[in-house]
Amino acid sequence: xxxxxxxxxxxxxxxxKRAEKDDFFAEHPQSPxxxxxxxxxxxxxxxxxxxTYRVTATATVHDDPEVVLMDTTAGREMRYLRVxxxxxxxxxxxxxxxxxTFELAAYRQERPNEQPLFVPFRDKTTGQQTYQGGRYxxxxxxxxxxDGDEIVVDFNLAYTPFCAxxxxxxxxxxxxxxxxxxxxxxxxxxx
Length: 191
Fold this sequence. Notes:
Oligomer: single chain
Strand order of the largest sheet: 3-2-1-6
Number of strands: 6
Radius of gyration: 17 Å
Pfam family, one: DUF1684
Organism: Natrinema salaciae
Distance between the termini: 28 Å
Helix content: 10-25%
Protein name: DUF1684 domain-containing protein
Shape: globular
Order of helices and strands: HEEEEEE
InterPro entries: DUF1684
Low-confidence stretches: none
C-alpha cells in the first residue's frame, strides 16, 4: 500500500463493505437484480483484495471545469464536469505488466451541491473479467481538493454499474480519456 494503514483492518473493512453490498443486492427493493432473480443471487464476484491496487494519487484541480458529454448505455448523453485529473503509479512485479504512471479524470455532475468525485474507467479486464461498459469508483476527499493534494484511489472498491444487471438503468460509459492501458484485477468482477 502506498500509505501507511493497517492492512488487516483494511481487508476486514473491504470484506465488510462487500458483504453489505451483497445483502443489498439480494434483499433491498431498489436492488438492480430483477425480483424474479433474487432468490438465485448468491453474491457478487470480486477479485481477491490486493493492496497493490490501493494507491495515492496526486490531484490537478481544474478551476474552470470543462464539460464532458458521456455516452450512456441507453444511447443518450450525460453532462459532467471534469473537475480534476488524478495521477498515480501502479507498481507491479508481474512480468507481463508494466510499471508506470497513469491518469484518470474525476468528474462531477452539474449540480450546485458537493458530490463525491465520479471516476468511471476501463482497463484491460473490461469485457473479459469485468463488465463490458467499464467500472466506477466514487472518491470522497476529506476537504475541497487543491492542486498537489493527495487522495487515495482504491481500485478494490471499483464496482459494476447497475445497468449491467437490469436494462431499467441507464449508465454513463467511461470516456476514452479514462481507458487505462493496464490490467487492474481489483474490485468487482463480472463474467
